Amino acid sequence: MRLGVLDVGSNTVHLLVVDAHPGARPLPAHSHKAELRLAELLDGDGAIGPEGVERLVTVVQEALEAAEDKGVEDVLPFATSAVREAANADDVLARVAEETGVRLQVLSGADEARLTFLAARRWFGWSAGKLLVLDIGGGSLEIAYGIDEEPDAAVSLPLGAGRLTASWLPGDPPDPADVRALRRHVRTEIARTVGDFSRHGAPDHVVATSKTFRQLARIAGAARSTEGLYVQRQLTRKALEEWVPKLAAMPAADRAGLPGVSEGRAAQLLAGALVAEGAMDLFGVEELEICPWALREGVILRRLDHLPT
After folding, report:
1. Neighbours of 235 (CB within 10 A)
2. Contact 191, 232 (CB under 8 A)
3. What is the chain's Cα-based Rg?
4. Can you tell me the distance from the alpha carbon of 279 to that of 221, in angstroms, rounded to the nearest whole number?
């Protein structure tokens, strides 16, 4: 069957169309996305403003039209931290449902971490042993650890690259004092969770998902996306530590000129790098591998698991 996953995230609204059936890997057939950066559109009260809601309704409708054009049988719509934590979340969800007919399922942070972990486990397989999975979104950081398909520990922290950029780094390039303050904040938040994971023992394999990690790996020398899904891509802590001060000194326009960095994500890259560096340091990770599958694939896989064979 042809499935569509409609992901209303903190940075983008992304429709991923796949051809899938139980027991087989989902094959991507089409991708339709629009950048909204909802995490940066919250007002002083933490609500998504009228303009943001209007744009959200519009891009959801456009995604539905794209799904119809591609012959999608079923659309799985969900929203993550930007909608989940908005002060007017219920009103936003009601408006989207009224205008488009789409009832967005709001995933909890723990659900995000678990589904992303499932995708990574299926990608790397049982031979990868105990996995530690890191995912930096626009609104949150997810961390999950385990040896099975359901993680033994999973947390979601409000350390998304978009959220942190809007709240902590107003300058372009940012003030060094603001960068230091954000670095302290990030490490304090992550350090509170380390004990919950370390009691399970050291992971056998550390992997990361998300656009932020892919871009950081790319500027550190990893293969470009055009070389395919199956090329192994790593990011070392040493390389990341060398890049953080360089990114901090660059305006967003210069970051957008780096290999693999999109103009829309360039402003967020420093905050994402500080989160990635902090997580790798505090969890004692010297090197991690980029996983091509993430939350959207996890949602698809879970859906397929519940289909009759």
Report:
1. 26
2. no
3. 19
4. 20
Strand extents, DSSP E, 27-117: 27-35, 74-79, 105-106
* Residues in Cβ contact with 290 at an 8 Å cutoff, skipping those fewer than 6 apart: 207, 208, 209, 213, 214, 217, 222, 233, 234, 235
Show Cβ contacts of residue 85 under 8 Å, excluding neighbours closer than 6 positions.
46, 139, 158
Q: Which two tokens stand for residue 256?
A: 């957008």
Q: What are phi and psi of 249, to 5 degrees?
A: -85, -10
CB-based contact 157:135 (threshold 8 Å): no
Output the six-digit token pair for 62: 């456009």
Phi, psi at residue 34, to the nearest 5°?
-140, 135
How far is residue 110's CA from residue 105's CA, in Å, rounded to a whole number?
14
Cα(132)–Cα(194) distance, integer angstroms: 12
Q: Are 142 and 212 in contact (CB under 8 A)?
A: no
Q: State both tokens at 193.
A: 């969770």
Identify whether 292 is preceded by a cis peptide bond (ω within 30 of 0): no
* Cβ density class 64-103: b for 16+ within 10 Å, e for less: bebbeeeebeebbbbbbbbbbbbebbeebbebbeeebebe
Residue pLDDT tens, the chain, 309 long:
899 999 999 889 999 999 988 888 899 999 999 988 887 777 888 899 998 999 999 999 999 999 999 999 999 999 998 899 999 999 999 999 999 999 999 999 999 999 999 999 999 999 999 999 999 999 999 999 999 999 999 999 999 999 999 999 999 999 999 999 999 999 999 999 999 999 999 999 999 999 999 999 999 999 999 999 899 999 999 999 999 999 999 999 999 999 999 998 999 999 999 999 999 999 999 999 999 999 999 999 999 988 766
Distance (Å, rounded) from C-alpha 126 to C-alpha 128?
5
Tokens of 8: 């209303």
